[in-house]
Design goal:
Layout (H helix, E strand, L loop, with lengths): L1 H110 L6 H109 L1
């Protein structure tokens, strides 16, 4: 009887040891999986942050380049218009001055002519003034067209400013989206921490229950031995 009790006790101890080893192995494996999951999750979060930052930097750089290119193009067009306008004004001034000089010379020459030719020369002077007035009218028309072009350029500049404002709004929206993503990540971390704590609590309860059953087996064996 003692040999049977001792053999039964040995089997019970062996089973308890095997069970405890399996529980420890499961606990260690679960902890390793939790650690691996945390590392993988952190790497994915870091990769998302890096990718988002790279996209924001690329968008900002592309936008800056486009704005700089538009500013350079706009400045070149303004400079070209100014140069063209200045050349036209200089050409008109030279032409006007030449014509004035010619008219003055003709006037001095015409005053020395007999009275009978005075009316004819006067008609020529009047005709020259009419031509000059027409050229002045054309110059004013050119100035009006130039003003219209400047107005169009100002409208383009206004549209560029509006587009820049839209891009700034989009950037603010991206920043808000990043903040929302960070909040979601934080919530996921908190939920994962709660699940890990719950699993740890269940494991601790299971271990406590195992120890209680182990103590109960020993009490039962002692009672049988006394009998």
């Amino acid at each position: 009887m003692d040999t049977l009790d001792e053999s039964f006790q040995n089997r019970v101890d062996t089973l308890n040891d095997n069970f405890q080893n399996r529980v420890d192995t499961l606990d260690e494996s679960f902890q390793n999986r939790v650690d691996a999951l945390n590392d993988n999750f952190q790497k994915k979060i870091d990769a998302l942050n890096d990718n988002f930052q790279n996209r924001v930097d690329t968008l900002d750089e592309s936008f800056q380049k486009k704005v700089d290119a538009l500013n350079d193009n706009f400045q070149k067009k303004i400079d070209a218009l100014n140069d063209n306008f200045q050349k036209k004004v200089d050409t008109l001034n030279e032409s006007f001055q030449c014509k004035i000089d010619g008219l003055a010379a003709d006037f001095h020459r015409w005053t020395s002519i007999l009275a009978e030719d005075f009316q004819h020369k006067l008609d020529i002077v009047i005709e020259g003034h009419q031509i000059l007035n027409e050229k002045i009218d054309r110059l004013e028309k050119g100035q009006m067209e130039l003003s219209a072009r400047v107005d169009k350029l100002e409208l383009i500049s206004l549209r560029l400013e509006q587009r820049q404002a839209k891009l700034e709004q989009r950037q603010a929206s991206l920043e808000q989206r990043q903040a929302d993503l960070e909040q979601e990540i934080k919530a996921v971390k908190e939920e994962l921490g709660k699940k890990i704590d719950a699993v740890a609590a269940d494991l601790a309860a299971h271990r406590t229950d195992t120890e209680i059953h182990k103590a109960g087996y020993r009490v039962c064996d002692n009672k049988d031995y006394r009998t």
